[in-house]
Amino acid sequence: MNVDLHMHTSCSDGVYTPEELLTMAETAQLGEISITDHDTVEAYSHPCVVSSSVSVIRGIEISTEYNGEDIHVLGYYIHTEHKAIAEYCQTFHQRRLERALQIVDRLAGLGYELDRTPLEGLIKQGVAVGRPHIARMLIEKGYFATIADVFQEVLHRGAPAYVPYQRCTIEECIELIHEAGGVAVLAHPGLIQHNLQAVLPYAFDGIEVFHPKNWGRENEFMEIAKTRHWLISGGSDFHGVPGRFPEVVGQFYVPSERLHTLLEYRRKK
Asked: Which CDD domains does the protein's record reference (predicted)?
């Protein structure tokens, strides 16, 4: 069986709805997936998650940082209706909206005029608004050709329209996931350029060994998991964005036997 434990929907910054994602997962013959939207569990309010022939591990990807660098924490097997998770998502949605509107204001000062209404509408739908949503709006207005162009020019950390936002600490993210009954996994360590060794001592339960940005370093991350007795995870980080690998569900997957300890964790609960 092939699995993909890192996927995003339109409930955060993915392109496809939960229904569309699950249909594509079925077509790709994935046996098990996890929808790990950024700072939201809205996807799990969709009936398709329960009715799909694809088994779904309930998950989330929480945003934090260390020493000015983005660090993401994947939470698996969480109780998505847990009070702490619900409160976190509600608070973070509001923070994301406030940040998005500040970015729109900065863009206006740079000559890029955008309507705030669509962003406010997304928040009302339970979507965790982020920079990719603003990037798509800029493309629709004809200001840029691709999302990569938008980030390179105006939205990357330190760019003219970038606005930092308040996030939970790594400890708080891990505690939140544990409180909701889940396991906390360090996401895509291959993307952590400067602070990997510094964040490893935190109380993670696992590490995402298999990820498109980890190519060539899987053995390194496997050794970290072995040394620390951590669970091993893996997934495509699928968003459905043109030009961002993988563009198609099933283009990147992990054989289930490589993640057997994490997949068996459900039965131990």
From this structure: PHP_HisPPase_AMP
Q: What is the DSSP string of 255-266?
A: EGGGGHHHHHHH
Range 135-144, long-range pairs (CB < 8 A, 24+ positions)? 138/107, 138/112, 138/114, 141/112, 141/113, 141/114, 143/112
- Is the bond preceding residue 164 a cis peptide, omega within 30 degrees? no
Please tell me whether residues 26 and 60 are part of one structural domain. Answer: yes
Question: Would you state the pLDDT for residue 191?
Answer: 97
Residues of the chain with pLDDT under 50: none
CA terminus-to-terminus distance, the chain: 22
Same domain (yes/no): 8, 73:
yes
Q: Which domain holds residue 150?
A: 90-155
Total of domains in the chain = 2
Residue 210 maps to a domain? yes
